[in-house]
Design brief:
There is one protein chain. The protein is α/β, with parallel strands linked by helices. It contains two helices and five strands, in the order βαβββαβ. Strands 1-4-3-2-5 form a five-stranded mixed beta sheet, covered by helices on one side. β2 and β3 form a beta hairpin.
Length: about 100
């Protein structure tokens, strides 16, 4: 059983992983920010949406002893030449 996010686990606006991939394919995704260390949370900047939105339902989470990993999402973003970065949340506001 793959480790994926369920919509009921989130308490913020989100887009399903399937919808995200569709928008990626249509060129609507402009940027993706993955949160370190594993990238288990990711936010996409999408045309027509005011601020970055969490990639939710169906997004793969890290399963160190299995076949689920955000690395698949990173690879997909990379394949579509969409800019991305990894952010360490605790250091994001450090100057």
């Amino acid at each position: 059983d793959a480790a994926v996010i369920k919509a009921t686990e989130l308490n913020e606006p989100s887009i399903s992983y399937g919808d995200f991939v569709g928008k990626l394919k249509s060129g609507e995704v402009k940027f993706v920010e993955f949160l370190a260390p594993d990238g288990d949370a990711a936010y996409a900047t999408i045309e027509g949406i005011d601020k970055p939105i969490r990639i939710g339902e169906g997004y793969p989470t890290e399963q160190h002893d299995g076949w689920s990993s955000p690395a698949f999402a990173v690879r997909t973003v990379k394949n579509y030449n969409v800019p991305y970065k990894f952010t360490v949340p605790a250091l994001a506001s450090y100057k």
